[in-house]
Each structure stands twice: as C-alpha cells, then as structure tokens.
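Module 6 notes. Inverse folding takes a fixed backbone as the condition and produces residue identities as the prediction. Think of it as a translation problem where the source language is geometry and the target language is the twenty amino acids. Below is one complete input and output pair. Work through it position by position during the lab.
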C-alpha cells in the first residue's frame, strides 16, 4: 500500500517542567525534519500540574 502525504507526518510528545531546553535539544538532534507545528498543553489537579508539547513534523519520504 502506497502512503500519501499524511504518511510522511509524525509526532513527538515531550513532557516535563523545562520544555524549552527539551524541545530545543530534540530539534537540534533532528535538523533534517520539517516542523509543521508545535502545540502546547498544560493540565492541573489539586496538587499537581504538567506541561506537554506535541511537535508535528514531516519525515523525509
């Protein structure tokens, strides 16, 4: 089965407190990838919170 354009799209989820350093490190280690978008999300409960980033990128075909 041949993949279309969507078959070249992938995601990377990054979680933690200091997302800037983690995202920059991942981008530096994957310079050949085309980043399409980066989405951020924060969630919280009564005693905890978390931050996530979802990097949407295109893999080389």
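Target side of the pair, the amino acids:
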């Amino acid at each position: 089965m041949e993949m279309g354009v969507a078959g070249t799209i992938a995601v990377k989820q990054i979680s933690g407190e200091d997302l800037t350093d983690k995202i920059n490190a991942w981008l530096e280690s994957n310079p050949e990838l085309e980043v399409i978008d980066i989405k951020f999300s924060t969630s919280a409960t009564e005693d905890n919170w978390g931050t996530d980033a979802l990097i949407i990128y295109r893999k080389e075909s």
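Reference fact for the lab report: Helices lie at 19-29.
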